[in-house]
Amino acid sequence: MDVADVNVGQRQHRDEVGVRCQKLFQDFLDEFKEDGELKYLEPAQELQSEERSTIEISFEDVEKYNQNLATTIIEEYYRIYPYLCQAVSNYVKDRAGLKKEKECYISFTDVPTRHVVRELKTDKIGTLVRISGQVIRTHPVHPELVLGTFTCLDCQTVIKNVEQQFKYTNPTICRNPVCSNRRRFLLNVDKSTFVDFQKVRIQETQAELPRGCVPRSVEVILRAENVETVQAGDRYDFTGTLIVVPDVGALALPGARTQIASKHQHPDEAEGVRGLKALGVRDLHYRVAFLACSVQPTNPKFGGIEMPLGEITPEIMKQQMTEGEWKHMYEMSRDKNLYQNMINSLFPSIHGNDEVKKGILLMLFGGVSKTTVEGTSLRGDINCCIVGDPSTAKSQFLKQVSEFSPRAVYTSGKASSAAGLTAAVVKDEESSDFVIEAGALMLADNGVCCIDEFDKMDLRDQVAIHEAMEQQTISIAKAGVRATLNARTSILAAANPIGGRYDRAKSLQQNIQLSAPIMSRFDLFFILVDECNEVIDYAIARKIVDLHCNVEETVERIYTKQEVLQYISFARKFKPIINKEAGELLVRYYNRLRLRDSTSAGKSTWRITVRQLESMIRLSEAMARMDISDEVQPKHVREAYRLLNKSIIRVEQPDIQLGDEQDEEQVVHEEEVNDETPVPSQTTQKKKMVLSFEEYKAISNMIVVHMRRDDARREEEGKEGMRRSDVVEWYLNHIADQIETEEELVEKKDMFEKVLDRLMYHDQVIIPLTKVGLKGSEQEEGDNPFLVVHPNYVIDQ
């Protein structure tokens, strides 16, 4: 018999409460049944496996069996937890026939009350609580010594099961009554008990953070099967207890280290208290941590109901709804004006800008993420960028989205670095290991990241989010740490034009400080220009005044915020599939965009690539989700194309200045002819004609439609094609009722001829043809050629 098992002359302390709880808990495992069968028999049998050591217990079952036992577990959790684990070990031996000794652990789930990090005070120490938070830092897994077996170097007595108080702890004294050794012990590694140990840091979420407060964080200790179950950026519920642990980092300070070393060098010298600093070396260096027994990933859905992560089908969500909620959800899906009603309910205090609201709404619904056969992930999240003049409600859109969606992170581009947006590699204070700390994009995983002042970011910081915007991952290779982390987030960015005002005469890329790769990764661009319009200005002013007078009465919501959130959450569980008709329409619309981009008429800000096709697919899937449809239909594709086309058209077209190229060529020709005595050209004094792009496209489309119809008619009748003079005469007859004076006739004729010249020689939409050698001179043919529309030209819709 081991001396350690019988301590002669020492009184054994027996915790009556712990022993009583152990017996009651073992009775609970033996007797609790569900559907007539022992609920925890099968989980106990799984503990015979070498890989398993933890049994999951629902706390609701304990409350049903014995309320007093449940109350004692909550109030005295840390004290009686070893006895509960011993009850599980006994149950596994009795029921499952486990032969060898094995440490078993308990993981409690469904603990009723959930607390936030800010509520962890000293009254929670030792009690069973459930906290929620977002993981911002994870540490590597290490072995932890929990029960040490030591050998006395003086008498060779083996001392078993010395509990380690979160730091290496020797026995206080040898258990041999005739030996008084207090310092000279050797750890017996083979007979000691080690468990996997991981430390993570969690932080308050944005939704739980009081306004104006700094987020608080706490370190969580994970053991056994709970290690490597969390990832930075994800949200979890941790069940366990708040504990007090020694601050090993503070004990390792230079002053403390010197004093500890001196004590070991001169153990026999008497020592006295030399002030508060010496007194506090051991007594005051403590901090709180959270010892978790259970980790449950949670994804609080938009409706506010907590649901675990994983494959949740619409049928599962329907089962969790009440009959009234499901009825209201069905009525919303049947609303014929759902599109407009939802944007009015989302942004009731913002007047106008319906296209921007629709784009943000589709961003919240999102597309369907896919994985190819090769394992490549295809992005399903939609990225939007809002560019506009000051006071056009850009930041208001971002603020409302960040407050609306629980899983949203709001940040400013000027105050954010590349590491702050993606992830940082920092050095741990205690172990000196390099660990990964999550940035804004990781914290917004499966949510929305709102970045204001996006154009104010440094170029090197913008480059850091290239990968996150397209591949939705963040790759890090720093300080020996190589990892690929998830950043499955939609980005909603706001930017100001260069100089503060948007210049219509320049393209979008000339108006903002963004690189072409960044711009191509945005699915939608919206331009907000502060225009002087009497009707719009009056409506905006009326809206603002009403908001200041009666805030509640002015807000017109068809649906409440809670109803919209619940509907979006339900719709996001659908994964619509593109049917054959919709797929053909997508291809046709993409070809139309490419053909329009191939001509120079559009002056596109960036080239139309397959990324715009993928954007159209994502927008179509978001429209199908909004309609609670299992497949993408042609009507969804048409709306996606309209929104994408509206975005591209709005950002890429400056006003058209007519006559510049022809006048410059004429000036150069006159200077070459009269190079001896140059005569000032009257052409340079002509007033430039400026047309808005909308007017220019309206006239050009009208010309193309008329010419194609007339060519078809002339071909049937066997007549010659249209000449330039025929087109001019047709247009003047078409607008005859708008002309009152001869001056207006000359001005309209001059303007139309310049538009025709631009279509012929600049945009190459119309091809001039001449017949040399026939009737008439070559000069006459050149001034009045036959005109034919380019066969590949596609009219913009």
UniProtKB/TrEMBL annotation:
Location(s) in or outside the cell: Nucleus
Spans traversing the lipid bilayer: none
GO cellular component: MCM complex; nucleus
Coiled-coil boundaries: none
EC number: 3.6.4.12
Signal peptide (from-to): none
Biological process terms in GO annotation: cell division; DNA replication initiation; double-strand break repair via break-induced replication; mitotic DNA replication
GO MF assignments: ATP binding; hydrolase activity; single-stranded 3'-5' DNA helicase activity; single-stranded DNA binding
Record flagged with keyword Nucleus: yes
Keywords, ordered alphabetically: ATP-binding, Cell cycle, Cell division, DNA replication, DNA-binding, Helicase, Hydrolase, Mitosis, Nucleotide-binding, Nucleus
UniProt cross-references to PROSITE patterns, sorted A to Z: MCM_1 (PS00847), MCM_2 (PS50051)
Alphabetized CDD domains for the sequence: MCM6 (cd17757)
Function: Acts as component of the MCM2-7 complex (MCM complex) which is the replicative helicase essential for 'once per cell cycle' DNA replication initiation and elongation in eukaryotic cells. The active ATPase sites in the MCM2-7 ring are formed through the interaction surfaces of two neighboring subunits such that a critical structure of a conserved arginine finger motif is provided in trans relative to the ATP-binding site of the Walker A box of the adjacent subunit. The six ATPase active sites, however, are likely to contribute differentially to the complex helicase activity.
Family: Belongs to the MCM family.
Subunit and partners: Component of the MCM2-7 complex.
Protein's UniProt name: DNA replication licensing factor MCM6
Lineage: Eukaryota, Metazoa, Ecdysozoa, Arthropoda, Hexapoda
